[in-house]
């Protein structure tokens, strides 16, 4: 069921909407692709949506990212796994390779100058972590290793005006711009815009045997920062999404309790990244801690009551989907598995009463993301199907290998 979303794409789409996986038509195309892969929809409809995305020029400048432009369109086409898109993918891949090399050169030059990064240099939504997801999906292992090597370099400690800071510290606010409310900048811990995105990519690639020198050290360094800011132990553990310069220096968090339990900034996204890091390093103690934190989060009514909608980015859909992926990797019968079962029931009960989302093709904040998360619960599929891996763009799971897609069409 598509919950009222259009089955036929409109013509004359705005170019920005046509290329945005976050807020535009590629999200709707992705939904129809997943429905076709799980026999809940048909490939003709999915192809109409794919064609609407690829009908016009696609941005391949250095601001293109996993959620906008050539990388976003390529990500969508690979989930489709249709041979008829091979030519389009080859063209997109050439542009993605060029823009990735340019962005890597810019990032390394910035590090060599001793400057601190913008969030959009390295994060999942706009940065090199997101582009790394595309390279992972495309099995461009050589260039992916260059991205991983950059992330390793990014995590090294730097000294700025006498302050010892992680290399991913930014002088900007969470908006990505200079902000007088954030003097001295901040450490962003979130999965969407912060260091948990690189952590998840470093961990997932290591799990799949793709490594570079220093990768284990980089994962451990990020883990130490997240360990430092884990609060509420042992009864109500949680992570903040951001840490200000004043908090960093004083080692005291001014936030007194957990924020909303979202995929993007909240404890669920951070816990999933920590769990993946534990799996990569074969660290059962860290895995148990991450799963315990997440189980506590999704059984805490005070945290759940902070969710105001059903969006994938910061609402119920993102919480449930992230928790589902974590529960799939948790030991059978564990507290997390049991907590997730209860969470699913609670979500089904609350969904009809949540405020309506924007009825656009956006994956992150629109109806599409919520439908995809619900579809994944109602239509479980084997790991050999590409629909299992649409959420690779969220870093909640790793991209499927191309060879695994043969025979699924």
What about the largest sheet?
2 strands, antiparallel
Share of helix, binned? 40-55%
Sheet with the most strands: spatial strand order: 1-2
Which spans of ≥5 residues are poorly predicted at pLDDT below 50?
402-409
Radius of gyration based on Cα positions:
20 Å
What's the count of strands?
4
Order of helices and strands: HHHHHHHHEEEHHEHHHHHHH
**How much strand?**
under 5%
How many alpha or pi helices?
A: 17
* Helix and strand composition category: mainly alpha
| Large-scale geometry | globular
How far the N terminus sits from the C terminus, by CA atoms, comes to: 20 Å
Name the average pLDDT. Answer: 91
What does this structure look like?
Helix content is 50%, strand content 3%. The protein has 17 helices and four strands. The protein is globular. The C terminus is likely disordered.
């Amino acid at each position: 069921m598509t919950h009222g979303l259009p089955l036929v794409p409109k013509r004359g789409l705005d170019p920005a909407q046509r290329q945005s996986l976050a807020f535009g038509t590629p999200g709707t195309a992705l939904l129809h692709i997943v429905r076709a892969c799980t026999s809940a929809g048909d490939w003709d409809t999915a192809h109409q949506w794919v064609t609407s995305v690829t009908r016009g020029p696609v941005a391949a400048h250095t601001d293109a990212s996993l959620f906008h432009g050539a990388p976003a369109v390529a990500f969508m086409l690979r989930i489709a796994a249709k041979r008829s898109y091979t030519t389009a993918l080859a063209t997109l891949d050439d542009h993605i390779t060029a823009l990735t090399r340019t962005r890597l050169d810019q990032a390394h030059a910035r590090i060599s100058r001793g400057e601190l990064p913008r969030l959009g240099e390295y994060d999942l939504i706009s940065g090199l972590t997101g582009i790394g997801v595309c390279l992972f999906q495309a099995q461009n292992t050589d260039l992916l290793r260059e991205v991983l090597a950059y992330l390793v370099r990014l995590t090294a400690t730097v000294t700025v005006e006498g302050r010892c800071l992680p290399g991913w510290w930014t002088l900007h606010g969470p908006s990505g711009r200079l902000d007088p409310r954030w003097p001295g900048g901040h450490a962003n811990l979130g999965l969407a815009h912060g260091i948990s995105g690189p952590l998840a990519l470093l961990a997932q690639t290591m799990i799949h045997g793709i490594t570079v020198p220093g990768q284990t050290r980089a994962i451990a360094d990020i883990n130490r920062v997240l360990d430092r800011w884990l609060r509420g132990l042992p009864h109500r553990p949680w992570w903040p999404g951001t840490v200000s310069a004043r908090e960093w220096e004083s080692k005291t968090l001014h936030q007194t309790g957990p924020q909303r339990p979202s995929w993007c900034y909240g404890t669920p996204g951070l816990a999933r990244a920590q769990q993946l890091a534990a799996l990569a390093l074969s660290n059962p103690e860290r895995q148990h801690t991450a799963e315990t934190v997440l189980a506590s989060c999704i059984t805490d009514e005070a945290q759940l009551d902070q969710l105001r909608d059903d969006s994938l980015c910061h609402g119920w859909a993102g919480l449930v989907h992230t928790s589902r992926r974590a529960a799939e990797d948790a030991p059978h019968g564990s507290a997390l598995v049991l907590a997730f079962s209860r969470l699913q029931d609670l979500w089904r009960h609350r969904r009809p009463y949540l405020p309506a989302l924007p009825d656009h093709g956006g994956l992150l904040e629109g109806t599409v993301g919520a439908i995809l998360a619900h579809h994944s619960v109602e239509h479980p599929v084997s790991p050999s199907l590409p629909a299992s891996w649409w959420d690779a763009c969220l870093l909640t799971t790793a991209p499927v290998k191309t060879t695994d897609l043969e025979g699924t069409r």
